[in-house]
Amino acid sequence: MARSCFQINIGAFEDFIRKVQENPDAARYTFRTVTYWEGGAVSRTVARNFEIKADEPSDLGGTDSAPDPVELLLASLATCFAIGFVTQAARRGIDFRNLQVVTEGDIDLRGYLGLDPAVRPGYSRIRYTVKVDPDADPQVLEELRQLAHRLSPMIETVTHGVPVEGRIEVVDSRAATN
């Protein structure tokens, strides 16, 4: 089935840009997820009305029933980039029939396993390849790639970091069932 980037609702996107230009506070959002531990290494995250499962591969103690969190990070990067790429292409009247973003990340699990304090527990390198069947020349596609890369909230967050804060809130789940 042929697809087109023109299926994205550019009118709504452009309307939102105008809304933010008139009122910059309209651009401020707080996204929220709630993650529930379901036993073992399995968790279920609720984001708006959607659910995302996560698990670990069996050699890391999981049941391999869902992607693991580091794979979900790659998926977040790739989907954020893909949306930006498609949006920027459609804004310029550039269409394509197919788009894939192949994302890979290198990680040394000795950091996660606590075996070597000199090894960071996260990715040491992430890379992606855009595979596209376009109606545009390679130079224009590279310009789109650079723009989508620069404007991607996920790529920017991973590349430049953001403070992450945490706290504990003790709740008595037995009280809720009585």
UniProtKB/TrEMBL annotation:
InterPro entries, alphabetized: KH_dom-like_a/b (IPR015946), OsmC/Ohr_fam (IPR003718), OsmC/Ohr_hydroprdx_reductase (IPR052924), OsmC/Ohrsf (IPR036102)
Source superkingdom: Bacteria
A Pfam family that the UniProt record links to this protein: OsmC
Membrane-traversing stretches: none
Protein name: OsmC family protein
Originating organism: Thermaerobacter marianensis (strain ATCC 700841 / DSM 12885 / JCM 10246 / 7p75a)
